[in-house]
Every structure is written in structure tokens, then in C-alpha cells.
Specification:
CATH topology: Arc Repressor Mutant, subunit A
Strand content: 15-25%
Number of strands: 5
Number of helices: 5
CATH architecture: Orthogonal Bundle
Largest sheet: 3 strands, antiparallel
CATH superfamily: Winged helix-like DNA-binding domain superfamily/Winged helix DNA-binding domain
């Protein structure tokens, strides 16, 4: 469980990592980036965007084992991008309702980082031009 924010809110900003003792707590944006970093997980998301799938159906066509697919789905689940419903003995995977919000927050943060680089590179360009 994440520690509470000293400002009173139990939610911490997405772009920080909190160190307490020797434990580092990752923020939700890290889980989203990690989940989207792998091409297999992105393909699983693409498939689930079309329709919910049983585990076996979701694993079809991949060259990796079904247990490996299950590990990928667990990571996507931990990131809040998909969820699994148990129906009898089967698991039905589907996109998580809040998954879109997680991706939108990631995009917003990446745009902020892009803005930082735009500012830094423009300042560097001005410096070079002024000191020719």
C-alpha cells in the first residue's frame, strides 16, 4: 500500500517515486508504461478492443506459451488496463473501464515531458545562435 501524501490527500502525484527506508513505491504511471512497453501486451489489448475473449482464444496465434500469455495478462491487469471475469472454469478477459483513464494520464504526462524538452532545446538553440 502506498503511503499517504503529506499534503493530506491519500493520492500521490503520478510522476514521483516515494522512498521510505529502503522501499521504493512506484506510481500508477509506471505500471501503465511497463504494461504498454511490450509488443505482446499491446497485441493483447488490440484483441480485447474488438471483444472480450476467453483465455484460450486470447492466446491463439502467439508463439509463446499459454502460461506466458497469463503472465502478460496479469501485468495488464495490475496496470488497470484489463480485467478478468471468472465464468465457470473459464476466464473472460476484457478491457477495464478505467484503463482508458490510465492511458490518458500517461499521454498527458508524456506531453508534459515533451514540453520540457521543447523548452530546453529551444533555449539551447538560442544559446548557440547568440554565441556563434
Amino acid at each position: 500500500m502506498l503511503p499517504s501524501n503529506p499534503l493530506g490527500s491519500s493520492l500521490l502525484p503520478l510522476d514521483i517515486c516515494v522512498t521510505i527506508g529502503l522501499h521504493i513505491f512506484s506510481m500508477p504511471i509506471d505500471a501503465t508504461i511497463g504494461a504498454l512497453a511490450d509488443s505482446t501486451r499491446r497485441e493483447l489489448l488490440r484483441r480485447l478492443a474488438d471483444k472480450p475473449c476467453r483465455a484460450g482464444e486470447l492466446a491463439e496465434g502467439f508463439t509463446i506459451s499459454r502460461p506466458a500469455i497469463c503472465k502478460h495478462t496479469r501485468m495488464l491487469g495490475r496496470a488497470g488496463l484489463i480485467r478478468a471475469k471468472k465464468v465457470g472454469r473459464e476466464r473472460i478477459y476484457e478491457l477495464a473501464p478505467r484503463g482508458r483513464l490510465a492511458v490518458e494520464e500517461l499521454i498527458k504526462k508524456l506531453e508534459e515531458v515533451g514540453g520540457f524538452w521543447d523548452t530546453a532545446l529551444n533555449a539551447f538553440r538560442r544559446y548557440v545562435e547568440e554565441n556563434r
